[in-house]
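Side project, low priority. Logging it here so it doesn't get lost.
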Amino acid sequence: MIMIEIVLQPRILEPKDWATCLFVFSFILIAITKTAFETRFSEFLRILVSDKYVKVYKDTSHLMSGFTILLFLVQIISFSFFIQLALYHFGYVSKMEKTDWVIFLRIFTFFGIFVLSKFLIEKIVAAIFNIEEFAEQFNLQKVSYRTFVGMILLPINIYLFYNNTSSNILIYCIIIGILIINLFSYLVSLKIYQNLLIGNLFYFILYLCALEIAPYYFIYYLITKNLAH
């Protein structure tokens, strides 16, 4: 009589329900925004091919509007997902940590605090240099373009999250695309506010170096250092 030994191995299931809920929640926020602000949302989607949205909604009162706040939340969720996925592809987190909601929560909290703190510091610096009006309009424009990037990233995040065969080349292409859109937003700012910037060019360059370049290097350093340990 032949005895067959059966060895049972536990099957490890990656918990992804939390991510699915967040993806659905993000799309619900976008749907609510589109319904409540239909005309503005339509103009917003054309932000890369037309400067009409930037010119029409440049008033600083729009910075704290429901439209901006709803899509800002989508932006934070989307960028936090992408940061976690990029860290996985570059080897800073393991395969299990790619789908770990605790890692996402840490990144989401840190990134959210970082963005809000940066916004407050910018307001203080703008007050010191007496360029509050420009800084607030510039902030509104940055939020608009980065929110647009966040919306584009959302379906890309879904693909990257549920697909384990993505290459580093794709991640690099996405990062380069984000940088190009950011650069484009700065060029649009220079075009729109060129008269205002002529008398404050030194402060604008200092503003870009201190508050636009250094903080993102700082956040990259902190995230990679903490997760590497």
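Brief comment: Confidence is low (pLDDT under 50) at residues 6-13.
Revisit when time allows.
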